[in-house]
Amino acid sequence: MYMGYIYMDIALPLGTRRNVSLAPYTTFKIGGTAKYFYIARSTKDIVDAVAQAKSLKLPFFVLAGGSNVLVSDKGFNGLVIKVQNTAYTISKTNVHADAGVSMETLVKKTGSKGLSGLQWAGGLPGSVGGAVRGNAGAFGGEIKDSIVSIRVLNAKGNIVTLIQKQCKFSYRDSLIKKNNLIVLSCIFKLEKGNKRIIQATAKDHREYRKERHPLEYPNAGSVFKNCDVKKFSKKLQEELQDVIKVDPFPVVPTAYLISQAKLKGLRVGKAQVSKKHPNYIVNKGGATAKDVLHIAKKVKNIIKKKFSINLEQEIQFVE
Ligand SMILES: Cc1cc2nc3c(=O)[nH]c(=O)nc-3n(C[C@H](O)[C@H](O)[C@H](O)COP(=O)(O)OP(=O)(O)OC[C@H]3O[C@@H](n4cnc5c(N)ncnc54)[C@H](O)[C@@H]3O)c2cc1C
Q: Is the residue at 119 inside a domain?
């Protein structure tokens, strides 16, 4: 037993810490501890850490900006690999970015060079890798629109390059998500544009978020995906005509449905359905994952009863 522990500590990457609280590494500020926690500051660090976890048969989880996760109150009984490879280069209209680069850094740097393509992501929290995995999108744009190729680590431990088409991007989904691939880096192709307009657009989006989203409380963004209009009955489609938006295809905003169901402000413990943007659940200070899951379940059940729609969760639960 004792020998086993020594072996494990030796085999884990240098710098691995034990029993690290995960809450500070998430935008929700919720969650228990990781048994082991390692910050991977280079692509090699990520690859080696995954190989080591696998050789020890230790469950591992890749965490980046922590803006799309809800960590269990019990934490994670394995190795959390915090992706923090942050190198990037911009050459003419090509951008090569490590998975750990923050989207905001990229939006600002490319904008300052008059490169158009990422301005939709002004104010989007999180990293390139997290955005690619979930095909992040907002204001009519999606990350898939600018991607040329990505480098991933596959289940066999091989590094492979996938061109955009192979990534099978769809609404908040991708092959990376489906197959649990790990994004190491990404190549974007942008276009030359008007620097002033590009920067102003990104700024407008940041301001819109500040105004409309409950950023004053810790949260993890939209809890549920918006709902494909086609999934509603014909009668409801007609009734909801005025609220349908095209982003990236015709959807009924889940925030609207939650609001119609009079669930704004619904509270369980210290978690609450935001009154400002009801597709957000906010942490009013000391909320637990159990509180959030309780609310999410309640919202799902009520929306199902009222609109015959199954809400799909956007946030990833980590346990
Ligand atoms: C205030 C707020 C507003 C938001 N607005 C939007 C929005 O407008 N549009 C939108 O799409 N999203 C939005 N989000 C959600 C979130 O910002 C995105 O999903 C973001 O892309 C997640 O990136 P991350 O680095 O924080 O990922 P994390 O939260 O760290 O991880 C999310 C998932 O991605 C995986 N992951 C992370 N890095 C990698 C990698 N390198 N390779 C493989 N898997 C990886 C993790 O394992 C986890 O499953 C919002 C969130 C917040 C808090």
A: yes
Judgement on whether residues 198 and 234 belong to the same structural domain of the protein: no
Rounded distance between C-alpha atoms, residue 236 and residue 230, angstroms:
10
Query: Is 141's C-beta closer than 6 angstroms to any atom of ligand 1?
Result: no
Catalytic residue, chosen from 67, 185, 222, 274, is 222
CATH code of residue 12: 3.30.43.10
**Does any domain span residue 207?**
no
| Residues 109, 90 contacting (CB under 8 angstroms) | yes
d(C-alpha 76, C-alpha 187), whole Å: 32
pLDDT for res 1: 37
Has 191 been annotated as catalytic?
A: no
Asked whether residue 94 falls in the same domain as residue 198, the answer is yes
**Residues 171 and 191 grouped into a single domain:** yes
Backbone angles phi, psi at 302, to 5 degrees: -70, -40
Please count the structural domains in the chain.
3
Instruction: State yes or no: pLDDT of 91 exceeds 90.
Output: yes
- Of these residues, 67, 172, 185, 209, which one is catalytic? 172
- Give the 3-state secondary structure of residue 305: helix
Q: Which atom of ligand 1 is nearest to the CA of 68?
A: 29
- What pTM, to 2 d.p., does this model score? 0.95
Q: Does 209 map to a domain?
A: no
Domain of residue 54, residue span: 2-83
The domain boundary residue, chosen from 83, 115, 144: 83
| Residue 130 burial class via C-beta count within 10 angstroms: exposed 0-12, middle 13-18, buried 19 and up | buried
Whether residues 18 and 93 share a domain: the answer is: no
* Closest C-alpha residue for ligand 1 atom 34: 130
Each residue's pLDDT tens digit, 101-117? 999 999 999 999 999 99
